[in-house]
Amino acid sequence: MWMQHIYPHFPVNLNELPFRGATNLTWRFMSSGNRYVYCIVEKQKCFSPFVLQNKFLVYDLWSGTSCYYRCSSTADLVEFYETSENRGIAVIDDGDDISFHSTTLDQESRKLDIGEASLSMVKATNNYGNRRGSVGFSTRNNDGVTMVIPFDNGISVIEMDSKCNIKKTDVECDSGSWSRSEPWQEGRMLYCFHSVADEFEDDEFSGMIVSVDLDTSEVSWITIADERLKSFFDDPNHPVRFVRVIHRNDRVWMTTEKLLENSKKVYLKEDHRWHEIGSGIADTMVLIDVRDDGNALVLNIETHLEGHFHEDSVSFAVLSRCGVPSLQSIARNAALRYVESLRYNRHMARIFGYDNF
C-alpha cells in the first residue's frame, strides 16, 4: 500500500494551535473534484435557542487553504458533487422536502448559487431510521449522481446526469440494507451490501450483496465469490460493523471495520475480482472519494489533546491502487511545498496540472 500526503503542504502540530474551545462540528458529507474537496459540516449556530445548521466547507488542495463558502439557499445543503470546473449537483433539505438542483460555483467569490429545483420530494418516514435525516445515500454514475432514498416498502432511485436531468424509479423491496449502506451503480444495475441491525441497533454486514435491475425493478441476492473476503464477513465473533463503498470508473472501493482496534481494511474490486490493498489503516482515516485517476482520497482527522478539533486539523492523502507515485505528482507536491507563490497562481495551476494529485 502506498499513500501520498497532499494536504496541508506542511505538517500541522495540533497542540500548538490556539485553543478555540469545542467546535460542536459534525461531518455530514464529503466529495472531491480535481482541485477541491467539498465538505458539508453541521455546526452549532447558537445556544439559545439551540440551533444546528449545515455549512459548506471547501478545502483547496492546490493552495493548501480552506474556508467556508456562502450558499444562496437558506435551507440546508446536504450533498454536493462537482460535475465540471464551475458546475455541480446539490441536494437541499428544507425539513419537510428534499430537492435536487444544478448549481454554479464561484471559486473567486467563494459562493455556491443554487438553481431551480429539478425535482422535489416529500421526505418519507422509514422504519429503519435512516441515520442521515431520511435523505438517503448517493453514488456516482456514468454522468452524474444516483441517490437511493429508502421508505417503508421500498426505495426511490433518483438518477441525475451532469446537467441535473433526473430520472426517478420506485422499487418495492426491503429497504433496510439501503438505509445503512452506500450503493454503487454499474450500468442499469444498482448494488449495496446487505446488513441487519442487531439487538443493540448496531449494524452487522453479512457479506451478501443486494442488487436491483433499474429497468425491471427485479431484486436479487449475490454471494461474494472471493473466499478470503467471504470468511472475513463470516466471522461470528467479530462481525463487520461498518462498510463504506465508493464506485468510480468501473472500480469499487470498499472500506470495512470491526469493533477492534486497527481493524480497518480497504478492498478494491477490479475486473470482477476483489483485492485487499490496504490494512492497518489508522482508525482516524476514512476513504471519502475516488479521483478521476482511479486513486482514492483519504481523510485523516486528528483531535487536540483537549479533546476538540477545528477545521484545520484535517489532512488528506492519496491511496494508490498501483502502489507507486507518478513523477508528475512527486514534482508537483514538492513545488507546492517550497514555492509559495505557485499556490496562489491560477494560471500556473492550469499549466502545471492540478488534476490527479
Structure description:
This is DUF295 domain-containing protein. With 357 residues, the protein is mostly beta strands. Among the domains are: 24-123, no CATH class; 125-223, no CATH class. The chain has 3 helices and 24 strands. Strands 2-3-4-5-9-8-7-6 form an 8-stranded mixed beta sheet, with no helix packed on it. A 4-stranded antiparallel beta sheet has the order 1-24-23-22, with no helix packed on it. It has a 4-stranded antiparallel beta sheet with strand order 10-11-12-13, with no helix packed on it. The longest helix is centred in the last third of the chain and has 12 residues, at 327-338. The model is unreliable at 127-133 (pLDDT under 50).
Describe the oligomeric state of these chains in a short phrase: single chain
Mean pLDDT: 84
Count the DSSP helices.
3
Cα-atom Rg, whole angstroms?
20 Å
The beta-strand count equals 24
Shape: globular
As laid out across the biggest beta sheet, the strand order is 2-3-4-5-9-8-7-6
In the predicted model, the low-confidence regions spanning at least 5 consecutive residues are 127-133
SS strand fraction? over 45%
Distance between the termini: 17 Å
Secondary-structure element string: EEEEEEEEEEEEEEEEEHEEEEEEEHH
Characterize the largest beta sheet: strand count, sense, and whether it forms a barrel: 8 strands, mixed
Give the helix/strand class: mainly beta
Helix content: under 10%
Organism: Haemonchus contortus (Barber pole worm)
Protein name: DUF295 domain-containing protein
